[in-house]
Amino acid sequence: MTRKIKIFDTTLRDGEQSPGASMNTEEKLVVTRELLRMNVDVIEAGFPISSPGDFESVRRIAELAGDNAIVCGLTRAVDKDIDCAADALKYAKHPRIHTGLGVSPSHIHDKLHMTEDEVVERAAHCVAYAKKYVDDVEFYAEDAGRSDYDFLVRVIQAAVDAGATVVNIPDTTGYSLPIEFGRRIKYLRDNVKGIENVDISVHCHNDLGMATALALEGVRNGATQIECTINGLGERAGNTAVEEVVMAIKMHGKELDAHTDINTREFVKASHLITTITGMGVQANKAIVGANAFAHSSGIHQDGVLKKRDTYEIIDPADVGAGESKIILTARSGHAALKHRLEELGYEFSPEKLDKLYEAFLNIADKKKEVYDEDLESLVNEHDRNETAIYALEAVQVSCGYPLTPTATVTMKHKDDEPVTTCAFGTGPVDAAYKAVDNIVKVQNDLSEFSVQAVTRGIDALGEVTVRVKAENGEVYIGRGADNDIIVSSTKAYINALNRLIADQGIDAK
Ligand code: KIV
Ligand code: ZN
After folding, report:
1. Which atom of ligand 1 has the smallest separation from the CA of 74?
2. pTM of the model
3. Domains and CATH numbers, the chain
């Protein structure tokens, strides 16, 4: 059996420190329920002395978590902070006080204005003081990533001797290289007496984009707890992302001699929850939970994934609650992807028809970033209309605007004849195009309805036009047309209605 790595979630404390990510108590309780579903080992619920709101949140989260997780409150190495945290945690089934102070030269001299000896003494004092209230005391050595190795050993030794159950080694500024951070953890393991009886925790920030790598290197060198947040939320560039570090351990458990007890199927839901509550979304290409994490857009990749998912995917999307892999239809998609999606939508076509549809698909895809299912439906319908058409539109061009007279030039082809081009003026560009069509298709009719609808979202959406034309005998014919260009879809819709009228009434419209 591999080592169990405890997951200490600090979304509600370090995550909440992220500018713009503050949450009220009710929202924190919603997040707590999600953390419990994820089965995290420790929930850092807040910094009780920082505000009455934070105190109340820690108190309510402690009650809610009950037996299901350790609930932790942060303090400075100050007695009144520890008193306050103990008070907030008094109803917790498994309370933990997380106390500590800075240990790097910059923190000791420029922030705390203390001597090294005073820091060691304060470390021992705060742990012993917290121990009066709770058995489980975690000591953090802030900015350990930039501290002197031997001084860090002295401080951590003092904390362990005073009864700390967990020693947290943060790379507070995200400064370290993973290899160096790992070496530091190993140095502590080799030099602090009794460290084998406590958990070594790693708390890494993402200032150089390496928070996940740092935490993993810590684990490889003996850490047994990782501090992390949903979506990597946290101060500045954030913390280690829980979804990344846990999935990396899941993939490489053997090499790391590690496993976690996290329910990874909650990851996408948890990510969306944090986005909804904080308004801070993740980028589309974010590992594990980004919108594109399981989306394939290039033809070569799509072909591979459709043959066997793991040609381009190392994680089954269902394992992180992301549903299924997504094939994104774009101008780079091949026949295989189009065929697959059309089949999923319930269409089956001959190879010849598929070739024609693929051409029409590329036409749309060249104009749009992404081709959606609705576009495909529209494309298939459009294709069917053209197949049976008596008259087909070959080209339409309009010029209009203030103070121009709207003019349209239309080229159309009767199924048995050569193409014909004509032009006309109108009250607007659609009217001009319809008049040009009327120059070619000579059939009496009355346009009784005209409506436009966007088929999908976005400025580049296909516009679908529906028209109703009334024949001389009062019969009404509906026509539809779809295109990115509204003038083109309008013209196609009109021609479609006229084709139906001509076919139904057996009129010679030449
Ligand atoms: O980054 C850090 O050092 C911290 C400590 C308070 C644990 O958040
Ligand atoms: Zn931090």
Report:
1. 6
2. 0.81
3. 3-278 (3.20.20.70), 298-371 (no CATH), 384-505 (3.30.160.270)
